Amino acid sequence: MMATYAIGDVQGCYKPLQCLLDRIRFDPNTDRLWFVGDLVNRGPNSLGVLRYIKGLGNRAIAVLGNHDLFLLAAAEGIAVLRPKDTIQDIIIADDRAELISWLRHLPLHHRERDCFMVHAGLLPQWTIDEATAFAREVEDALSGPQYRTFLQALFQSPAPPWTHSLTGMSRLVSIAHVMTRLRTCTLTGEISSFSGPPENAPAGFTPWFRIPGRRNTGTTIITGHWAALGLQLEPDHLAIDSGCVWGRQLTAVRLDDRKVFQVESSGT
Questions:
Q1: What is the arithmetic mean of pLDDT over 192-220?
Q2: Rounded to an integer, what distance in angstroms lies between the CA atom of residue 175 and that of residue 170?
């Protein structure tokens, strides 16, 4: 019987990914994998991860995370690698051009059945239909002739707070910032850079999925990005970044029945 598994932030942890696929008895002939973004960086084998997921073809669906966007910018000479980054193996690989082209054509979101997958989260004032349309604006820029201009705007200037009146690159940067970096925000959608445990969030900021009256309830939103939050399964939110790259676990959730499968990082 076909199964669909959502998998948390891999971040270059190729060996744990293979162990996890063994654990779920992944069959590429029948099963599907949904990757919640941050395929690369900080772990030891980002190149292996990209090659493997790309090789799965239509058996895998992946959305872009902030580290994936950083790789695209670094490959274009727009962002500078830092000592903690581990994506140099991709940048110097013989198949670099093919991998980078595949990555930049990945979506920012995936919407199917009653699920919406995005790397980080959605602002409380966005409906699912609005979020879908906003994501497509960024996806068109990434896959089109504005590719470099968008990445320059994203990595070389601060992201403006979201308002519906934003236009041009400012609008695209704001959308991408929300979808790949959001953890906590205010009731009006102001974002903080806080990344620690939710109970330590700064005054006035709340985990985005806890905002009262948010307009995107009723759909199961699948996210990663927040390792300090950890695995959290709620009726309309699956948070599945369980911190593999930080020495914890890599998680898969079988969407058909929400059964959880995990493997330890084992030093990645």
A1: 95
A2: 9
